[in-house]
Amino acid sequence: MSTDTRNVQPLRVEGVTVRFGGIVAVNDVSFTVQPRTIHALIGPNGAGKSSCFNAITGIYTPASGQVRLGETVLTGTPPHKIARQGIGRAFQNLALIGTSSVLDNVMLGRYSLTKGQFMAYGMRLPWTMRQERAHQDRAAEICDYMGLSHRLHTPAGALSYGEQKRVDLARALCVEPTVLMLDEPAAGMNSSETAMMAALIHDLRDDLGISVLLVEHDMSLVMGIADRITVLDFGRRIADDVPAVIQRDPEVIKAYLGGAPDESGESAEAAAISSEETSA
Ligand SMILES: Nc1ncnc2c1ncn2[C@@H]1O[C@H](COP(=O)(O)OP(=O)(O)O)[C@@H](O)[C@H]1O
Ligand SMILES: [Mg+2]
């Protein structure tokens, strides 16, 4: 897929704290997503991963700390302007319009890039028609890259779950991100769909030369593709390192063992971390 060669800047999360009343969801967390790396943010349920994502994308305003893309401070900027800075985001829970076509859903991701003149759109002025067509061509190109070209005019609600996840990703790519943020891209997927998603994320990074910040529960996916991993527990950063070190970190293993236990008394994630360790 053709893409411009934009300058990819590091995304820096600097001492970010997010509070909800008395709850400290994110507690003085710092990490840097280096250009063109796949960076995973992991941790047990309620650790503060989604809150951290929402602080980066401008949905939540941190109580303290800041987020920067290169030297540009993003904190305090509204979400659509952060998207325009090149931060693309897919959602944990699919937010597609089921009755609208795949192309229309993906085009929604594109509108934050248009000059936002809906009056002009309504009047169908020639230049807006031209602009709209250019955006549609690019949206179709992105869908093609995601293997959705035969589905452009199908209602999104009629697609399989795996395909809907790809539509959501296509929409995130439509802002031409230099940093792509994915909140649990493999949630609800079986193991072959998960393997496909892992390969896709890896290819995206290589083909587009962008950074990926990823929240994911599936440890085999994370350990397989992440260049670096930040671990949160109860809102705090407890580790930040390469996968091989994270897998052996006693505090990380303890955090997962202390998580919701299954019948065997061990959390599924802790088992996955240690099994990754033995297979490594
Ligand atoms: N909108 C909210 N209002 C109040 N509390 C919230 C809200 N969102 C998250 N929390 C709380 O903040 C903590 C972190 O949640 P979250 O960021 O969703 O964690 P994760 O994504 O790691 O599971 C949890 O204790 C959660 O209950
Ligand atoms: Mg979450």
What does this structure look like?
- The chain is an alpha/beta fold and 280 residues long.
- The chain has 2 domains: 1-86 and 177-280, Rossmann fold (3-Layer(aba) Sandwich); 96-176, no CATH class.
- Helix content is 40%, strand content 21%.
- It has 11 helices and 10 strands.
- A 6-stranded mixed beta sheet has the order 6-7-8-3-9-10, with helices on both faces.
- Helix 3 (102-110) packs parallel to helix 6 and helix 10 runs antiparallel to helix 11 (268-279).
- The longest helix is centred in the middle third of the chain and has 20 residues, at 126-145.
- It is globular and about 60 Å long.
- The structure holds adenosine-5'-diphosphate and magnesium ion.
Low-confidence stretches: 260-266
Rg calc: 19 Å
Number of helices: 11
CATH class of the largest domain: Alpha Beta
